[in-house]
């Protein structure tokens, strides 16, 4: 089973998420002082759709868990959606509750339907782990946030054959 299939099956098995859940917590303010994460996005397949960053605890059982479940349990969850800009560098900002270790996923939702589409959407994680037959462990998709602004780069991966891989030097 590929990563994309595993993620799609996991999402289908969970109750539907609320699109606005976690957005208030994730939205950066003008001149954001932090703690927050600046994500430089590289490897976009095209300039369509939107980008969705989601912040999770850096724990395997909570990483990529349903947002409703995490919030009901009082655990970290935040989300930011941004239309893909037509040109230029792509950078998102997502707030974190405090300095510490977190896991993050970044989705390139090419048709902006707020769902992961196996055939066309891209996905990436901090540290750009190699994507195999299952989702990465939380520690492979984790980053350390400081008290101010922390900058990381995430390379998006798209389905190519039976694997999820970055596009060549884009």
Task: Describe the fold and architecture.
With 170 residues, this protein is mostly beta strands. It has one domain. The chain contains three helices and ten strands, in the order ααββαββββββββ. β9 and β10 form a beta hairpin. The radius of gyration is 15 Å and the shape is globular. The two termini are 27 Å apart.
Any descriptors?
170 residues, mainly beta, seven-stranded antiparallel sheet, three-stranded mixed sheet, 3 helices, 12% helix
What's the helix and strand layout?
Elements: H1 3-13, H2 23-26, E1 36-42, E2 50-57, H3 67-72, E3 78-83, E4 90-95, E5 100-109, E6 122-124, E7 142-145, E8 149-155, E9 157-160, E10 163-166
Parallel strand pairs: 1-8
Antiparallel strand pairs: 1-4, 2-3, 2-5, 5-6, 5-7, 6-9, 9-10
The topology string of helices and strands comes to HHEEHEEEEEEEE
Number of helices in the DSSP assignment: 3
Termini separation (Å)?
A: 27 Å
Q: Provide the residue-averaged pLDDT.
A: 86
Roughly how much helix do the residues carry, as a percent range?
10-25%
Instruction: Report the β-strand fraction as a percent range.
Output: 25-35%
Quick one: biggest sheet? 7 strands, antiparallel
Principal-axis shape: globular
Structural class: mainly beta
DSSP strand tally: 10
Number of domains: 1
Determine the oligomeric state from the structure.
Answer: single chain
**What is Rg?**
15 Å
Uncertain runs with pLDDT below 50, 5 residues or more? 8-16
InterPro entries: DUF2141
Protein name: DUF2141 domain-containing protein
Pfam families: DUF2141
Organism: Rhizorhabdus wittichii (strain DSM 6014 / CCUG 31198 / JCM 15750 / NBRC 105917 / EY 4224 / RW1)
């Amino acid at each position: 089973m590929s990563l994309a299939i595993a993620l799609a099956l996991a999402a289908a098995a969970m109750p539907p998420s609320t699109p606005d859940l976690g957005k208030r917590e994730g939205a950066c303010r003008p001149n954001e002082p932090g703690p927050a994460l600046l994500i430089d996005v590289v490897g976009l397949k095209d300039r369509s759709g939107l980008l969705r960053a989601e912040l999770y605890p850096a724990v395997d059982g909570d990483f990529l868990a349903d947002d409703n479940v995490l919030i009901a349990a009082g655990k970290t969850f935040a989300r930011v959606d941004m239309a893909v800009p037509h040109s230029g560098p792509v950078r998102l900002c997502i707030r974190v509750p405090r300095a510490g270790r977190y896991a993050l996923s970044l989705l390139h939702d090419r048709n902006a339907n707020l769902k992961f589409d196996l055939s066309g959407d891209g996905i990436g994680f901090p540290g750009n782990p190699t994507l195999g037959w299952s989702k990465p462990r939380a520690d492979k998709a984790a980053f350390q946030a400081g008290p101010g602004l922390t900058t990381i780069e995430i390379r998006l991966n798209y389905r190519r054959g039976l694997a999820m891989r970055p596009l060549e030097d884009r």
